[in-house]
Amino acid sequence: MQTVLITGAAGKIGRNVVEALGKENTYKLRLADINEDGLKAFQELGYDVIRCDVSNLEECQNVCEGIDVVIHLAGNPSPDASFYDALLDGHIKGTYNMFQASKENNVSKVIVASSAQTIEGYPLDYQVHESTPPRPKNMYGVCKCFVEAVACYYAYEEDVQSVAIRIGAYDDYQPDGPALSARDMSAYVSPQDFNDLLLKTLNTENLPPYTLLHAVSNNRFKRLNLDETKKQVGYDPQSDAFKQSGFLFFDHDR
Ligand SMILES: NC(=O)c1ccc[n+]([C@@H]2O[C@H](COP(=O)([O-])OP(=O)(O)OC[C@H]3O[C@@H](n4cnc5c(N)ncnc54)[C@H](O)[C@@H]3O)[C@@H](O)[C@H]2O)c1
Description:
Layout: E1 2-7, H1 12-24, E2 27-33, H2 36-44, E3 48-51, H3 57-63, E4 69-72, H4 83-104, E5 109-115, H5 139-158, E6 162-167, E7 169-170, H6 182-187, E8 188-189, H7 191-203, E9 210-215, H8 227-233, H9 241-244
Helix pairs in contact: 1-7, 3-4, 4-5
The protein binds nicotinamide-adenine-dinucleotide.
Nicotinamide-adenine-dinucleotide (NAD) binds at residues 7-8, 10-14, 33-35, 38, 52-55, 73-77, 89-90, 94, 113, 115, 167, 169-170.
């Protein structure tokens, strides 16, 4: 049974990932977050939980002991976050620390959260492939370019198998909730599709040292191209934000 560490486990994506992996009964989970209160519910369910600030290397070294796979989600998800107040600790120091601690503990795979914000500077009608050069539009996107570069460096120079997942607009779509913009519909990824991608990424053997994957749903127009991601891990997204929102391209969509 693989021991999987999830950082940022108390967050929006983390909570859904814990639930999905917990149901599988094939992983031993260790859940880490800086927010101790957010971990309490998991502790009551019997999970191995630990407070860890990923900006502290020593805490990362401790939390990685005995771990086979790291899913690194910790960090502020806001594209408007300010560099010194919200991005430097979580995304820059935190990502370096988690990769360094993973290497020191012989972790076999690190899966790290990147973002569609790495390419947000391209015109909105342009579909981005994994091979398209990054074009961030804000410092959050710049930090996620750093995240991808660190993952690639540790894969090829330090022998840590790494996967960076560019997550789109992650949300649980509510029909009566606020309307999504066309941009958010094209970048939308449902929790179910994201969990499917993550489980397949965990279970796919023989990936190259570094893999860049795209996480958007099966939206009619996709901001991020999915051909390579489908080929690499067999991703099979089901949600379509345009359909869920009632947005019709053609009459036969009714
Ligand atoms: N939500 C999205 O649409 C989206 C899109 C693209 C990428 N992402 C990325 O996915 C990851 C998770 O996002 P989310 O939406 O769940 O965000 P969230 O804010 O709901 O959760 C992030 C978690 O990280 C924890 N955290 C923050 N700084 C930390 C630190 N220094 N040490 C330890 N834990 C820390 C927080 O306490 C929180 O529980 C982030 O890396 C984010 O950048 C999110």
